[in-house]
Amino acid sequence: MKLSLSAALLCGVMPLAVSASPLSLVITPTRTETPVSEIGSSVSVLTAQDMKMLQVPTVRDALKYIPGLSIAANGGAGQTTSVFIRGAKSEHTLVMIDGAKINDPSSTTDSYDFGRLTTANIERIEVLRGSQSVLYGADAIGGVINIITKQGSGVPSFTSSAEYGSRNHYILSTGASGSVDALRYSADISQQHVDGFSAFNRERGGIEDDGNETTTYSGRLDGKIDDRLRAYTTGRYTRSYTEFDDFGADADNDSKANELNWRGAAVLDLMGGKWSQELGLSYLDGGRSSTSSFGTNRFQGKRTKLDWVHTVKPIAGHILTGGLESSEETFSTDFDASRSVRNDAAFAQDQWNVWDKLFFTAGVRVDDHE
Hints:
Ferric Hydroxamate Uptake Protein, Chain A, domain 1; 5-stranded mixed sheet; globular
């Protein structure tokens, strides 16, 4: 059993967000919509407009513009990529899509490989630096990267685009979004391909190109059942093929990976908005295989998580957030039997606003890790 305690203090207004004013709202630091000016943690935001302006096709390219992050890649597109926040290990960075953890359960370190995550259908990326273990557990010792999918609105519309560049690099995408009565939706299909270059040092004989092709399907559906109850479901499936080299030699190796992550949740507002609760279920199923001079290796990982989070505003200046979580992960390979691990957790946090001048957050968490 593990006990975590946390406290943060902010005085005045600090310019912490990239492309976000102090009045902009962020969700990740407190699990409630909070102005950046009231956050005691260091947080940066990249919006879809930012990523379009920067012309970044992958999340790893987008994260290069966030301060406090170090990115290590084994080569070009699709190659294994790790992100380190403030010097912490890559497995100490919690990565989420719409609040669902996507760290790789088929990895022995539970870290996330950013090599095949594209910016398709992403509305914003919130990067939270520093320990956030009270709300998110031990995986968030270094920080949290929360990727938020686009929500449809307005008149139904369709979009398509095509791009082409050197090394036979092309990006094809098509999508639809909009709203119909109480339903809002967004969906996108995209494919990125590049012949690439040798991941092995060309000066040492690396001449064979190591290319990548990644196809991504993404979608989100939001529905309002009545004035108090709403629900949403979001999902993303990625299929990737990547060529890579051996350590110390140019080689014709390849890897295949697929990842499905899904989340569904219902949100109930009570007492005129003073009490809100969200009951959610998340699921991840990821597999990868690699063929090299060492043979073919396959890895498979799954994660199922149930969470129930409450937000209460008992008196002016206080926002209480508490919840229960239960998750189970399984891991299997060709050469070993399947293994599983379970973690149950409870947490509570208080946001305290004193005269709109002083902002506290303090919390406690208990984890029962099998």
